Amino acid sequence: MAGASRVVILGAGESGVGAAKLAKQKGFDVFVSDYGVITDKYKAALEKLGVAFESERHTEALILNATEVIKSPGIPATAPIIKKLIAKGTSVISEIEFAKRYTNAKTVCITGSNGKSTTSLLTYHILKNAGVNVGLAGNIGQSFAAQVADGEFDWYVLEISSFMLDDMFQFKADIAVLLNITPDHLDRYNYKLENYAASKMRIIQNQTAADVFIYCADDEESLKALKGLSPMAKTYPFSIVKKIEIGAYLQDDTIHIHTEPNNELTMSISDLALQGKHNIYNSMASGIVAKVLELRNETIRESMGNFKNIEHRLEHVAKISGIDFINDSKATNVNSTWYALESMTSDVVLIMGGVDKGNDYNMLKDLIKSKVKAIVCLGKDNKRIHDAFEDDVEVIVNTFSADEATQIAFHLAKRGDAVLLSPACASFDLFKNYEDRGNQFKAAVKEL
């Protein structure tokens, strides 16, 4: 390959810099271009690799001569530079697709509108504790390509977003997990749920009879998307409402997992580290993966019982004057906020708002009526939240900083209530990202 093929990488974040590292190692002529500002950390990494790069622009002459382009999942197919590349017939792929060419490791690929980070981390936790030589990558942690460049794992747990799936072609998941399909990112899919669902179903493309597909039998949109598709892989559904012969189901507050007729794992839901209905699903999905890999029941139970969930996902921050403060900043869509409210057992003062991605707030109405006493809006434009819920709650207040939102929520709550930051929106109007939003909320709580 040396000196011959030119690989251009668009986007210099974790995935882009990882792809640059692997491409350089494989002898490609590599160039990285980011339309935004490249952070100092990633600039230093590119300089160390000796890779040419540009920041805050896309110079067409340096991009359109690429043999292949690896693009960041955040860049839509409608971006002018991508349209020009596609018109030229240039191959445009994801970092995941690129990295998979250079590894013989097997992959557990987890997708879904909600719960994929939690399920990916739980699955990784179970495998690692069982002694599997496993890496964690994709939408989470360190770049897949960088890990492939640095060394070898036998397995990778990959959290895969629909945007990544859109740029995957030859890639195959050895074990594919689809948790659910709910409206999210519809601005990238012409506001059509079926387009988004079709994207999610790419998780099973290229699978063979030797592979595994795990999905939620209770999720209507998943079942709808599966109609007309015949998965080649061995399928394992999971359900909390009906008995499943081969797969997982819930009966009398106990999870039952069968991956073959006479080999059962049972676990009481009260022993699960992750509580709430949605987390029963996440635990079932991870448990099926573990059973498919023939890990010991004791090991699986132990890991499912001692797992610590991720920051910014229903994270308990503090209890002040008898009021619980919960950081669910990672809830960037309506469905995530629905899950958060569904798992609440006390009255809630809800902090929500931000950049609305064409949200349909209707699904929250019943939970907001029954559980939420006040809404504190945190965002530049809160009109749609007011319109959606003005008949359902007594108080809706506008705020423009995490400090202000936290203080007002504290005053509106009383002993025994919970203050829940679960925005249902992206964070880019007031914050760098959802982590920044969550960290500012946590800092504000500690100042109370």
From TrEMBL:
Coiled-coil stretches noted in the UniProt entry, renumbered to this chain: none
Catalytic activity: UDP-N-acetyl-alpha-D-muramoyl-L-alanine + D-glutamate + ATP = UDP-N-acetyl-alpha-D-muramoyl-L-alanyl-D-glutamate + ADP + phosphate + H(+)
Molecular functions per Gene Ontology: UDP-N-acetylmuramoylalanine-D-glutamate ligase activity
Protein's cellular compartments: Cytoplasm
Segments forming domain Mur ligase C-terminal: 312-425
Positions of the Mur ligase central domain: 110-289
Function: Cell wall formation. Catalyzes the addition of glutamate to the nucleotide precursor UDP-N-acetylmuramoyl-L-alanine (UMA).
Protein name (record): UDP-N-acetylmuramoylalanine--D-glutamate ligase
Source species: Pedobacter jamesrossensis
Encoding gene (name): murD
